[in-house]
Amino acid sequence: MFQKHISRHLAAYEDRQLSAPKARRADTHLAGCERCRSELDQFRFAAAMMEHLPVTEAPESIWISVEAAIDRQPERASRFQVRYWRFAAAVVLALMMFGAAAYWYATRSQPHWEVTRLDGLPAVGSKHIQATGRIQPGEWLETDAFSRARIKIGQIGQVEVEPNTRLRLVAARPAEHRLALARGEISASISAPPRLFFVETSSSTAVDLGCAYTMQVDDTGFGLLRVTAGWVSLEWRGRESLVPAGANCHTRPGTGPGTPYFEDAPVRLVKALESFDFESAGSGALDTILAESRVRDTLTLWHLLSRVDAGERPRVYDRIAALAPLPSGVSREKALQLDRGTLKRWKDELAWTW
Amino acid sequence: MVSLSDREVSADIIESCRRGDREAFRALYQAYKDRVYSISLYFFHGDAATASDVTQQVFLKLITSIAQFRGDSGFSTWLYRLVVNTCLDGARQAKSQAESVAHSRHAFPVESKSHEEDFARAQIATSVQAAVSALPPKFRLPILLRYFDELSYEEMAHALNCSMGTVASRLNRGHKILAQKLASLRGFLTPGG
Predict the structure, then answer these.
(1) Which residues of A touch B19 (CB under 8 A)?
(2) Are A207 and A195 in contact (CB under 8 A)?
(3) Boundaries of every domain in chain A
């Protein structure tokens, strides 16, 4: 190692991230190579200039919003210890109220989520929610044209349910929070590790990857996902669309999720994409998509790599390569073979432009 | 108020935050707010309003998800991953709302003009800020993480969701671009900054 120039290793060298033997070899190389010494000097110059970048004080107003959010947090643990005499009294009281306590515990132990009325009279089953209520697995929540509700998704987030929506709670377990949206619109905001929150529709399942999004489903089962933060994976029978913030994805019964596109994508691209995904428009639509794509539309093109016929795949590959430089480790051959590792590496690199 | 002198917070503080302890949150906020705000500010080209918004979002996410912090990685690493993701989300949203980066670039404030030396120092700072702001995001974020919290490559790799080799490569490239953009300031660089 380091028989050649060490330009690529300068940061690691300077930040003492090289192993001792590699660092010694770098020292030896630098002693005899003027070009690398010059590049190291450049690195150190940039590093010295960065010392002039001041830490800027955050405005105090930010804390006011944060503090308000803290006040809305539920207590997660008791704040004080019970003294012995209180404990004894509580035990006696508990014995006296054993029947009621047993009933309460049985009810409490049922998995459920809290529902809050926002407008009108949303209903869980046949029961209208006046202020707050609960929904258990198997139960339906329905809003009419005038009502809205909010569901607290365990400890990981919330879902706002818009008017004319019908949804069912499927699972309320710590490792699986799952809703089924039959029709209407919901806005989900989730702070949790990936793959803990799911929304099923008739044509796909939205899998949370740490995100905020809205999901709409009309009476025919046509759906539209709009992501506002993070990422959502829209999945159906092995077909998967990865949708980042700022992007949308349609979904249709019988076909599953379409190809994601950014909200600001050219109108002609979006129309051609709809024809390609749901009307089998083929290469005519692909021509338009390729011609209209901008750098960040490589989101769409990356998905199309595995969705076009093998004969069309080189055209998609060439268009992506023309829009964004190929990262190291991505070869034409492997990409056209749809090698999973290659596609993932390419997506991770392209995502910086999305 | 709890005071944190160490950049890594204790398990007690985290546990207090999980219980909804306002003072513990305040201590966390005080410890990290300026660094989170500064990273956001320089990521968003000096746009103070967006930086405030992103900083607020980061701490709101922290409040709602701190129960999921398992301590597998350091707290800083976990927090900066929130920062990175929130910055990238914000940038994607801004693009989708057709607020092009070129149009949203803000002038960085020059803080002091009282003395010639201060003025020169402020001018250098402004040039550095502009050079950092012009870096592509994939180089800008590692540079900001390196200088605002001196994270290790392993911590940066976790925050940026990439390998340590990729971190090294991006830092390399980022410094090279910065050196080229700031070459005209070489004469101003004095020992000790």
Answers:
(1) 75-77, 79
(2) yes
(3) 7-46, 109-258, 264-354
